[in-house]
Amino acid sequence: MIYGGVKTEHIQLNEQTLWSGGPRNWNNPEAKKYLPWVRQAALSGDYKKADSLSKFMQGPYTESYLPMADLFITYDGTTDSLSYKRSLSLDSAVNKVVFSGENIIYTRTVFSSFPDQVIVLRQSSDKKRKISFSAALTSKLHYTIHAVSQNHLVLKGKCPTHVEPAYLWKIKEKEAVQYPDSEPAEGMTFEVHVLIKNEGGTIVADDKNITIINADAATIIISAATSYNGFTKSPGWQGKDPSVDAGKFLANASLKSYNDLLKRHVQDYQPIFRRVHFYLGESGNKNLPTDERLKLMSSYTDPELVALITQYGRYILIAGSRPGGQPVNLKGIWNDRLRPEYSSNWCIDHDAQMFYYAVETTNLPEMHLPFLDFIRGLAENGKKTAEINYGMHGWCAHHNADIWRQTAPVGNWGEGNPHWATWNMSCAWLSAHLYDHYLFTGDKKFLKDKAWPVMKGAAEFCLDWLIETKEGKLISVPSVSPENTFITEKGDTAQISLNTTSDIALIKELFSNCVAADDILKIDQEFTGKLKIALKKLMPYSIGSKGQLLEWGNEWQPVDPSHRHLSHMYPVFPGNEISVNTDRHLVNAAKVALSLREKTNCSWGFAWKAACWARLGEADSAWQTWQYQLRYVDPESKSSFNNYGLFPNLFNSDGPDVIMNGNGCATAVLTEMLLQSQTGVIDLLPALPTIFAHGNANGLRARGNFVISFEWKGKKLKNVAIMSKSGNDCMVRHLKPVSVFENGKKIDVKETAFHIYSFKTTAGHTYYLEY
Q: How many C-beta atoms surround the C-beta of residue 601 within 10 A?
């Protein structure tokens, strides 16, 4: 994080593997004993008792993601300036701060290089010998610091063995942040290296600072590493030596010039980012600062800002979810708190998934891989949780996870609310990401070797989890709608019930995906035969008195009618079961249910709701809903009341806090308006708002491994190009017949269903459509 100060610059440094704790035994053997009692209470309608009993099934809270260090650069002779500009180019991932003072123009350039694994800061001016500053490293964690040479500082740090979640606010920080009493001990170690290459002037270092005097320019190179050695190994006892990687990265980068480092960074990043382009119209406010443009969004739709916000979600994934690394957590690599909101972990009842809603559609399939690898790690640990906590086959995980891939329910052995601590359907939801990656890429080796074992394990657990009623129906008990509380007919509030809509949807989708995968792989027809039988026995969705899709099996009212979670909308989005082109009855029920959730009590809730409206073909409802997220939030405000929207730097606000999953969901909203393919058919402009009647989108991807670029005028399609990467048959939906051209020659198109036109493709060829 670059704060952009004039007299003092503050660079807050993070590393995505820096966490408290280590692998531990989080499973709860007592849970197996209490499960029948919880089920009996729920089945008999005593939901309050089910809530109470379920607390005995909980485990410990997860560990926390931690801030690594802070670099403070104090400038000598620099005064505050009215001529100041701070910018981040999404096209190059380069940050610049430019200001003037005493007739000198100073330029500070910062970028984080993936190929060289370093952060680079360049300080220059338009006059010679005007760069003087001192650079100092500190950390909120335990650390020591020393100078290796006159231009090289090293900070060595130690992480806590445990950090309690911030929402346990009554615990004092000394008790909440727990370090070992002596060394050596458990707890991650880390190193941060800072090396400064000066051009002219003098340089000197002590054990606290590096000081530059009267240089023409200076380049600061920062490297870092931790002792993290995989989620199964103790970072204290079995960890890597962080000095090895940190020193190697710094040594290699220091041999390159600043221009070479910048060139390598841009050449790595830019081709990825430029795969996709959005144009929604010209902005009348493009010359204003971003924060001012955001403030004006309440009265003026800024089309270029909307496109920028959409691209920002892609930027976050490229910055924070590269292959070989960790997936983006709640605050991403921008966490500055020792006890961050929700431990800055992975909330896998939808928050973690939300970052990746648009990762495939917006042509970033390799940025999906860290999350998919994370899921495979959960599946590994989740086998023990399924066996120990439930006595069941397969694997499961619950509401929260950390870098150690905790799969047991959290709640500190009974302190957590059942509507999040008890929820164990993440195995089904997460498995959908693996299958979706296959649908977009067509990678059968990935499907067989990586996706199928995880999907099958999740389905094994769900098969064991379901119980059969006297009528021969399979239901999920205990069952919650994540993080939501209902009011019973008696006026009681409770959280555990029977067979919530989200459970039905997730299990149905998982079983269906496993059957479809086995049709391709022919790998375990005996098992998928069981799934086909189970699919026929699953309870149908419940419809309420107003024609609405119910959230729970009974028509109960939520305690919070504006609750942010829309778990009963899963089969609409991000699932794919309820579609305007398949089941009108369920579509209408979903629309009524969505209308009844008039507002939502967090920023990302508006984005999720808007994406649902887009899936339901309600373009203007989608846009009207999304606008609640596209609002300015004052970063100085401490109020949590109606403080929803985006901060000046476009981070998603969750009340007064930063929770960045909403940025990923914002990207999904526009892409769902422009392109949908969840039914296996390409739908272009399925929910285009009237406000964006003219525009174009280039490089979006559809299932079947198609890359699509298209233009529209007056909300009508023009100049559609579809590049086939796998040679699959392509199906598109349109009200009128479609003509398709390959190399200028018209090819055969068949109307395979009502308004669905199909044509054969060759891998690597591009097809142009005329309507």
A: 17
* Beta pairing class for 683-684 and 652-654: unpaired
Query: What are the tens digits of pLDDT across the range 443-454?
Result: 999 999 999 999
Q: What is the DSSP string of 336-382?
A: --SS-GGGG-EETTTHHHHHTTTTTTTT-HHHHHHHHHHHHHHHHHH
Coil, helix or strand for 738?
coil
Model pLDDT, residue 102: 83
DSSP 447: I
Written as six digits, the tokens of 727 are 């040679």
| Residues whose CB falls within 8 Å of the CB of residue 29, separated by 6 or more in sequence, listed in order | 388, 389
DSSP string for 192-236: EEEEEEEESSEEEE-SSEEEEEEESEEEEEEEEEE----TTS-TT
Extents of the domains making up the chain: 8-19+63-270, 30-59+321-598, 693-770
Closest CA to 550 of 490, 649, 484, 605: 484
Q: Does domain 693-770 have CATH number 2.60.40.1180?
A: yes
- In terms of pTM, does the model score above 0.90? yes
Output the average pLDDT for the chain: 96
**What is the Cα Rg of the chain in Å?**
27
CATH tag, 30-59+321-598: 1.50.10.10
Q: Is the pLDDT of residue 77 over 90?
A: no
Confidence grade of residue 8 (pLDDT, cut at 50, 70, 90): very high
8-19+63-270 classified as CATH 2.60.40.650:
no
Cα 445–322–253 angle (5° rounding)? 125
pLDDT in tens, 258-272: 999 999 999 999 999
Give the burial class of 117: count Cβ atoms within 10 A of its Cβ; 0-12 exposed, 13-18 middle, 19 or more buried: middle
